[in-house]
Design goal:
Blueprint (H helix, E strand, L loop, with lengths): L2 H21 L5 H25 L5 H24 L5 H23 L8 H28 L7 H36 L8
Helix pairs in contact: 1-2, 1-3, 2-3, 2-5, 3-4, 3-5, 4-6, 5-6
């Protein structure tokens, strides 16, 4: 197994630790979970970069890389829903999009065709990562206020907390719009896979 594919598997392996540190409430848990999310996101950048530069692109990588992205992002979004930081409707839309695209990929694979992620899929992933990082940063800021590392009174913290949660939610919705657009383009570009033969 080549290095890019190992990085892809590492990204998947990080996810359970990220989920645990996100859902278990301990001091600065958003910081720890955010670092794990950031590390996993960096593997996404490096596996693609190395695969292109070293000509190590494989069919496994074409399939596993976007799957690892989905596992990472959807795990975060589901945790955010549990923590009331994300609209559940947003997650349903993202899941519907991902299941639809994965279904097309599986149909294509059954006939020996591997469909790699397109530019819009990459834009979708980048906007999702930016939005999720923003949520982590906002919540980490509130954590710092809570433990007294940022000298803001509890009343001020309570006042700004809903606005930071709202800002994170707006960014997540923007990324969801890109997910919808990329999904429509993906289906349009690969509609031959779902036509009756």
């Amino acid at each position: 197994m080549n290095l890019p594919n190992k990085l892809t598997l590492l990204r998947i392996a990080i996810v359970p630790f990220m989920i645990a540190t996100l859902l278990i409430d301990f001091p600065l848990h958003f910081f720890v979970s955010g670092l794990l999310f950031g590390a996993a996101s960096l593997t996404d950048y490096f596996d693609g970069k190395i695969a292109r530069e070293k000509n190590l692109i494989t069919d496994f990588g074409k399939f596993a890389d976007p799957l690892a992205d989905k596992i990472l992002v959807i795990s975060c979004l589901v945790c955010f829903v549990a923590m009331k930081l994300c609209d559940p409707v947003l997650v349903i839309i993202v899941l519907f999009r991902e299941f639809s695209i994965t279904s097309i990929r599986l149909v294509a694979a059954s006939s020996g065709r591997v469909i790699a992620a397109n530019m819009w899929g990459k834009v979708k992933t980048v906007t999702q990562i930016i939005a999720i990082v923003a949520v982590f940063v906002f919540q980490f800021f509130l954590e710092l206020c809570k433990v007294g590392l940022i000298p803001i009174s509890q009343s001020v913290t309570d006042m700004i907390a809903p606005w930071l949660t709202l800002a994170g939610g707006v960014l997540l919705w923007i990324s969801t719009v890109f997910a919808i657009i990329s999904g429509i383009i993906y289906i349009k570009d690969n509609k031959d896979c779902i036509k009756e033969r």
